[in-house]
Amino acid sequence: MAKQDRAIRTRQTIIAAAARVFEENGYQAATITQILKEAGVTKGALYFHFSSKEELAHGVLAEQGQAWSLPARPSKVQELVDAVMVHAHRLQTDPLVRASVRLTLDPHAYGLDRTGPFREFGEVCRKILTAAKDQGELLPHVDIAEASDILVGSFAGVQAMSETLTNYADLSERARSLLRYLLPAAVVPSVLAALDYPVDRGAVVFAEIQAFEGAAAE
Q1: Predicted local confidence at residue 1, as pLDDT
Q2: What's this model's pTM, rounded to 2 decimal places?
């Protein structure tokens, strides 16, 4: 078990180092040598876990989808709000998630499949929106796939703008503004009026997730 724990810690160390290098240099300019130096591990240890820079990048990209076990809410639209606000919070606080987003939006990451995070976030949104429609929370005209794509694409634009202007400092405010303007086009007024999304909503819900996971691990 101790050997397995060491292997897990080594893998996490390598991914964290790769994330820092990818975030600072971008995918094309990043090198295995830089990642090795940042991680402080041997070449053999790195290649035991990852066979290439591309595989390392996919390991970092996978970090975006690690916290989607959202608390269930009576309102499914509230769950959608929580998903967006938690993602914004993680971008502000987790270097791994920031590196993953940079890779996703890096136009120079030639040959790297960057579709995963978009597809995963889109699937989360479609699942929640489908449940919301089944509960009568959405307006009759709403197309689930279209609404999901608009939300995911709009959030990508908002986070890119926030990164450029404030290094994500105002992302929670921008995410809330995005929801305030998009949701009225899709959500019935009575549900809309009951939604809770203060600026710190993402931090509050993420703390709830961590508390639940901590209790489950004990």
Answers
A1: 47
A2: 0.82
